Fold each of these.
Amino acid sequence: MLRFHRMRTTRLAAGAKWLSSATAPENATCLVIGAGHIGTYLATRAQAALPTATVLLKYHPDFPPRAEVRDLCAAHGVRLVDHVPASDLAFITTKTMDHDAACAELADAPHPPRTVTLVHNGLMPPPPKFPEGSDLVRCCTMGSWDFNPDGSFKVHNKEVPWFLPPTEEARPAEAFLNAAGVPAVRDEQFGWRQLKKYLVNTTANLMSIATDKNCGGMLADPDVDLRMERVFREMMAVLRADPTLADAWRWAPGSDDEIRGMVWAALHSYKDHFPSTYADYSAGRPLEHASLNGYVVLAAGRQGVPAPENAALIDEVLAKLEAKRCAVAARLDRAAAREARAKHLHTHAPSQGTPQPHPAGPS
């Protein structure tokens, strides 16, 4: 699952020589798909560092970008688009559940990019539809991003580079990211680095929703900390036995306790940060669970073993999301009913100055 998948590429040799005078980062057209935190950060940082490049940030037509995104793009000269224009390279920064649709959209575009980089920290198979002749590259990040009250970015673990697989196909993405001021490195331990970040996210992201706590709050609560421990230990048992992760495990520390220490240290570094999955829950958006704890349940099923801790966490969070949606729908219905009643009373109110019949009574 974490191995690099080469997708019908015919450009290996060209990929190694991508940095020609015509297509160097400062002359490139870069399409960033996904106008969330990470996509906006990448697009605005790249345009600021490479003023002669063309950086486009694509948002979904049904979900216009939030005010902070529009303001940042306007300030940095990033053009917001709701379609797929021609580009030299593309970075897909959407949630993993939207990666397949984004790749399919690129495949249907008249001029797809030569390099498509999927930026994600979950576990997922290759997209079923991908642009013919393009190179597929995976990328994992150790950071997280929030908007400050003034609209700027608050970046956690900014100094840690974005990791890419040690392939020639990954060179264009590595070169562009570094030129854009986003440290990036092709690393032979890429599979383990992605798996390590996955362990952090799968331990904490859905748990944050279940408990309504940020990373620091979960660690400070003994009951929550114990439940995260159970989820983690179950996850480790399943993933250790997953044959698709064999290469990634080659680079891992020897014991589960050592890895547990790494995961908990990472959570401590996030402190008061809420995972992005919690932000999706708060906004009532679909949750990225299939590539997190959902993968543990899926892999456990393939192995013929149960994963009750991870399955229960998913069920609890999805039930909580549904209850939240129902509550929001009920509030909207009540508001609509009040508005309709007010409109009715206004429409049928007697006009001023119209004589009104006196009630019957003794003369």
Amino acid sequence: MFFSIPTCSEVSDEDGSVYTAYEIHLNGAVHSAVRYSQLHKLNEQIQRRFDASGLAEFPPKKLFALSAHEKEERKTMLEVYLQTVGQQPEIAKSNLFVDFLIQSQKEFNKLNDSDSVKLSIYQADGKKISVDISGSDYTPEVLRYAAATLGIDKKHHPFFALYLMKQETKKKSIVRRLQDMECPYLTLKSLDESHSIEIRRSYWDKKHDDVLMQHNVSLHMLYIESIRNMEDRWIKPSSETLKTLKQLKTAGLKEQFIKVVRSESMYGYMMLGTGIVDYPDENGQEDVVVYGGAEKLKLVYRDGKIVSLPVRRIKCWTLFTDKKDVLSLHFLVMKDVLQWINIKTSSTNVILISMTLQSILDELVLLSKGQDLELTKVEISESYLPLSNKDRKLKEERKKRVPSFSSLQNQENELFMQGVGDDDL
């Protein structure tokens, strides 16, 4: 997860007292606005419960009012602190931190747990369902409701996820996967009408298809997603294979359809955006389409050439944003030779590619430990200082803002070179 605090504002309470609200952006979108005291309390709890030696310094309290320079310095320190929290899985995935994010998003939107709403969830074929939820329900809860409404077998719920989509001129594109620590209703509410939520597969390894094909509804979900990916040209079967697939579609043979289409090299890959890359020629600048899938990123060049970047050979990756919008991969190009590969793309795509890399690695870690995919279960129990009565102009302004991110965030790969031999280089 990627944090930034692009702005802070002076806000007046009903009693006339003034405080500073720090606007937190999560994965490029406005998430909430919090007081320093809220973050200070969070830090104290983290220090008591976890090994916090890897975290950046938390800005200390001040006895007197801050100058403009000191306010900017505190904002920067808070941003760096949250970035380092996001890079510590034990802390970032803890109930404590997830609860803080969920509660702050709810408070920012002045939403009560009892507020009931209807949320539209789309399927890959464009059909939608409406689920009755609480506006404060977080992503795993909403996913369970949506999967149950569709009739997906309970055992298969972990194989699906909710994605934020954006309607382009002719088709929808994926913005990002919704995270456990956000409320889908509130996230969607903060964006314009071109955005929607869609349920799609959550996994990268196509062997999981075999599990889903045992249940009619899950099989149908795979089937309509595969058709959608062909329509969007993520998968480009040969004319002969396309003819076979059309015959199977006409006959309604969904399982056979899946078995044929998943033999395609781009099956299971997600299009992550277009960009310019300096690889394989370090001095070159070539247009590419970036895809993410099972254990690899794939770069598809304008001339049709495809270059695969196995994730186990990526030592780390770094996000440069703040007008640069570059994702840099430290890639093992040959034995003992590492090279930085720079992908210049949009800020939104930088985040999506990075989140996809992390998702692929998370799945590989689970598989290496012999563990199955599972839905996150979070117990919301902590209480935080409320952000009551703050100026609501922050909420109105957030829809007009361009997503902003920190200028530099570095991600290490714990699976670097695991299972990679000389023959793989």
Amino acid sequence: MPSALILGGAGFIGRHLVVYLVENNLAEPVRVVDKAILQTSYLTDRQKAAFEKVEFIQGNLTRDASIDKAFAKEGEAFDYVFNCAGMTMYGQSDSVYQESVYDLSVKCAQKAAAVGCKRFVELSTAQVYAADKKSTNEEGKLKPWTGLAEKKLEVENALKDIANLNYIIVRPAIVYGVSDRLGLMPRLIIGAVYKKLGETMKLLWSDKLCLNTVHVEDCVSALWHLAEKGAVGSVYNLADKANTTQGSVGDILAELFGIKLGYYGTMISNVAKLNMAAAVETSNEKHMGPWSEMCQAASIENTPLTPYLDKELLYNNSLAVDGSAIEATGFAYKHPAPTADLLKDMVLEEIKLGNFPEGFLL
């Protein structure tokens, strides 16, 4: 049985990878490294049970000593290394991304090569592709449209120059599921806010804006599948076939919260684009205040959830991704599209954890 090292394993995707490996008895030993403290990471009961069966090391992987500790192992090196670590928030400075995305990832990759790991799976993003309404495959034009994606692409290019590194790059679309913080969860929170306000939820652009998706369970099963069967040096997209759009997500929000949706359209949205910072500030202020009131009314003092959306995500940038290439390797997606039940499960789990106020779902 292969051994596995999960870097950033307490994060959204990393924790689901831990669950997948443990529940399916796929790797032994499994080591997880993350700077987070598990007790304050809002793990679900299922996630807690999985973490009890792996080795956890708290460590900041921007530091060389933590990288050395992460990879230290008696006998042979870890077979598979999954890099889910690094800054995931949008709108950060280049220096932050340089340290906590580029430097972290490249140093970990160099260490993996030096100690002889068999596979290094790098979790990138489909935001490295040029925004296009047409689905983009792995040969698509590269034109990152977020600061995070720019640095992720730099990491991808750097991996090519590391001698003896057997790497695979994975570019997922928007990843959603239980414990999501930055994918579809902010829109779910905003849906609840408009339920409280009793107003129509109006969004920039149109219902046709592509927000292609992949469920986190498909994402982590794909990471493992590619570690075992992916071609070294290759890139693989991850996206379901739903061609998820702002409209299809909005329809689910309307169903879950009993709200009405509308769109500002191209003309008004283009006006807002001229001063997007101000438009986004106004929008976030409208959502943050009521969300805070909702949490206070529910006696929720601390929550990792927020309706805040960075301006990078609010431009007219379609994320349209062709995730079919991986299927030629024998992989099969289990979640063909976001559904009301799947998104409702996300909210219910956060309610159970005391992070999301009750009473807003229909």
